[in-house]
Amino acid sequence: MRTSALFLAAATVGQLIGRDLSAQGGLQQRVAELSQQIASEMAEYQKTTVAVVEFSDLQGNVTDFGRFLAEELITRLFQTKKFKVIERQLLNKIVAEQKLSLTGVVDPASARQLGKLLGVDAIATGTITDLGQSLRVNARLINAGTGELFAVASTEIFKDESVSRLMA
């Protein structure tokens, strides 16, 4: 009886650890899928230089998860060796100096102004929607010359402990 209880306890702990590890892998996998979608659209529309803006929630608030997502996309897009990617800190400095608002939805005038200032031809931005057990990430690719949306990408990310902490 005691052996079966220990076995059951060990199996339960193993499942919890496995679930946590697969959720971590799920986060990395979903971010990789999102960056691949973005890279594919950038290549299709012959965009070579991109600025990635911090992602916001539906109320326009930027969380650590929105910053994390921007950082991950910058790294992954750069690693493709297909694109020039503007450093986020430089982007934030120019946005502050020019008094632009670039969280969540980027208006066409701001996109064109940023495109001229940074020499980018695309801006990646987006929103994060909390669905309870998961987050829906919707990315938008904006033509920096016209301010028009030219592509979208999306993914759903399971909310594990690390994702929840970044969302707080």
Report on this structure.
The chain has 168 residues and is of the alpha/beta class. Helix content is 52%, strand content 23%. It is built from five helices and six strands, in the order αββαβααβββα. Strands 1, 2, 3, 4, 5 and 6 form a six-stranded mixed β-sheet that branches. A hairpin with a 3-residue loop joins strand 4 (122-130) and strand 5 (134-143). Residues 2-24 have low confidence and may be disordered.
Tell me briefly what this model is.
The protein is α/β, with parallel strands linked by helices and 168 residues long.
Largest sheet: 6 strands, mixed
Quick check: average pLDDT? Answer: 83
Structural class estimated from helices and strands: alpha/beta
Number-wise, the strands total 6
Number of helices: 5
Helix percent reads: 40-55%
Share in β-strands:
15-25%
Sequence of secondary-structure elements: HEEHEHHEEEH
- CA-to-CA gap between the ends? 43 Å
List the defining traits of the structure above.
5 helices; single chain; 168 residues; six-stranded mixed beta sheet; disordered N terminus; 52% helix
